[in-house]
Design brief:
Elements lengths: L3 E4 L2 E3 L5 E7 L1 H4 L3 E7 L6 E7 L5 E3 L7 E6 L4 E6 L8 E8 L3 H5 L4 E2 L3 E5 L2
Parallel strand pairs: 2-11
Antiparallel strand pairs: 1-3, 3-8, 4-5, 4-9, 5-6, 7-8, 9-10, 9-11
């Protein structure tokens, strides 16, 4: 059964930090690529970070480079998104996703999605 469950969202002041977690079922966690996407009201879905499980490849959206870090814990079948120096424009629903292909980064349509966790950055 495919399952991705996000947690860790919340409200934080600008400049603060949050760590999102995504617990994945074993068959999903073995996907070639694990993603974090986000979508704010009225905006298109955008890729935030991607982790290539076959070699540790990572990539980030320009807007978050240097502030966000994607990582995983194999023992826990969990992928994380550490978010530092948060800005109001980071406010969005954040989704964990998985796909066998890196094309999903560009299509923004991975095969498997979690239910999302809300991140709000506001003073």
């Amino acid at each position: 059964q495919v399952q991705l469950v996000e947690s860790g969202g919340g409200s934080v002041q600008p400049g603060g930090s949050l760590r999102l977690s995504c617990a994945a079922s074993a068959n999903t966690y073995s996907s070639n690529y694990l993603y974090w996407f986000r979508q704010a009201p009225g905006n298109e879905r955008e890729g935030v970070a991607v982790f290539g499980t076959r070699g540790g490849f990572t990539d980030y959206a320009d807007a978050v480079k240097g502030r966000f870090t994607i990582s995983r814990d194999n023992a826990k079948n969990t992928v994380y998104l550490q978010m530092n120096s948060l800005k109001p424009e980071d406010t969005a629903m954040y989704y964990c996703a998985a796909d066998s292909s890196l094309r999903a980064w560009y299509s923004r349509s991975p095969n498997y999605w979690g239910q999302g966790t809300q991140v709000t950055v506001s003073s």
